[in-house]
Amino acid sequence: MKDKNIMEVTTFRINSDVNPTDFAKRDAQVESDFTSQQLGFMKRQSGVDDKGNYVVVVYWKSATDADASMNKFMGDPSVADYAQMIDGPTMKMSRYTMDKAFEADESQFVEIMSFDVKPNTDLAAFNATNQRVETDFTGKRKGFLQRLTGVNETGRQVVAVYWVDKTKSDASLKPFMEAPIAKAFMQDMDQSSMLMGRYQFLRK
Predict the structure, then answer these.
(1) How many CA atoms lie within 13 A of 196 on its CB side?
(2) Under CATH, which number does the domain 109-201 receive?
(3) 43: which strand partners?
(4) Nearest CA-CA partner of 46 in 67, 69, 22, 24
(5) 204 pLDDT band (50/70/90 cuts)?
(6) CATH classification number, 6-98, choose in 3.20.20.70, 3.40.50.300, 3.30.70.100, 3.40.50.2300
(7) What are the tens digits of pLDDT across the range 24-70?
(8) What per-residue string of b and e applies to 147-186 under the rule 16 or more CB within 10 Å gives b?
(9) Spatial distance between the Cα atoms of 126 and 192, rounded to a whole number of angstroms
């Protein structure tokens, strides 16, 4: 993943005694005062789902930049109070090399799905089908802004779909599951490995 654009996805819950409004305010400060100041920073997004699960997505110019920022974050006293708001055991972080740069600046909602493909899958054919999901279905839906795909060092795949808002995403869920291209796409997935998150951004 060296020298490739990276999407870093961190999911977590906040501690039960933390006010969500206070967390959102502190999160914005961390973005402006710390993360956005790091070398290789491109974009940071924070969101929450209907069940109170949070996500922070950060785009970096390279894995080296992402590593340097994380190492600094873990030891920087200026963000210690923010880290203490997070329920540590619930936090999970993954990084993926992405197929293209983020451009959906107007998005207020994102779907993030990660999964493993089945053993012995023809990856070239799978990648072609993956791209056809956008051209044949998702890219034609009202409110769609951008679909990004990526893979990590173990071969785990990620798809991030950006929408204008939640209502447009909601309206596409059932039609997607019924679309022939979706069925072709999902037949190569290891269904037991699939994780799906749908997040409303904390701010514009």
Answers:
(1) 7
(2) 3.30.70.100
(3) 59
(4) 24
(5) confident
(6) 3.30.70.100
(7) 999 999 999 999 999 999 999 999 999 999 999 999 999 999 999 99
(8) bbbbbbeeebbbbbbbbbebebbeebeeebeebebbebbe
(9) 18
What are 146's strand-pairing partners?
A: 162
H or E element at residue 72: helix 63-75
On whether the CB atoms of residues 149 and 130 are closer than 8 A, the answer is yes
pLDDT digits (tens, 9 = 90+) for 167-192: 999 999 999 999 999 999 999 999 99
| Dist CA 16 CA 22 (whole Å) | 12
Strands (DSSP E) found in the chain: 6-12, 41-48, 54-60, 92-98, 109-115, 144-151, 157-163, 195-201
Parts of the chain belonging to CATH 3.30.70.100: 6-98, 109-201
Q: Which two tokens stand for residue 106?
A: 């107007």
